[in-house]
Amino acid sequence: MMAVRLLHAGIVVCLVVAGCATWTDPAGEVGDASWYGPGFHGRKTASGEVFDMHARTAAHRTLPFGALVRVTRLNTGASTVVRINDRGPSKAGRVIDLSNGAARDLDMVRDGVVRVRIDVIQLP
After folding, report:
1. Were both Cys, which of 9, 25, 53, 102 would link to 98 (CB 3.0–4.6 Å)?
2. How many structural domains are present in the chain?
């Protein structure tokens, strides 16, 4: 019995360390989204890939790299699917930073920050 509990505890620790157990809300995360682009275009992301501001990618604090998520703008219903390839946002109160390409899909470039819902489509 003790061995089983230790095994379960070890699995949980491994999942948390690997970043697999950080997403706990299957109904979707709601919060403010911002976008980034020109100042970061061509630079490396936290995942090691080169940032392309025209691609459909995003930065999230906890979702694993490679996760696919649908981001829906709450006041218009516009949505886009992005792949998580970076960490962020660095501004408090924001839940996701979108690439310029994804921000254009949501018609939020001019607004800068909009309220969104994030739904996980696929984890890597």
Report:
1. 102
2. 1
**Tokens (6 digits) for 28:** 């979707």
Quick: pLDDT tens for 7-22.
344 443 343 334 444 4
Considering the domain boundaries, does residue 22 fall inside one? Answer: no
CA distances from 32 to 42, 47, 48, 82 (A): 25, 23, 25, 16
Residue 14 covered by a domain: no
Whole-angstrom distance, CA of residue 85 vs CA of residue 24: 20
Please state, in angstroms and rounded to a whole number, the distance separating the CA atoms of residues 19 and 47: 13
For residue range 31-65, what is the model confidence (pLDDT) as tens digits? 999 999 889 999 999 999 999 999 999 999 999 99
E strands, the chain, are 29-36, 57-59, 68-73, 79-86, 94-99, 113-122
Q: Kindly state whether residue 12 falls inside one of the protein's structural domains.
A: no
Residue 91, domain CATH: 2.40.40.10
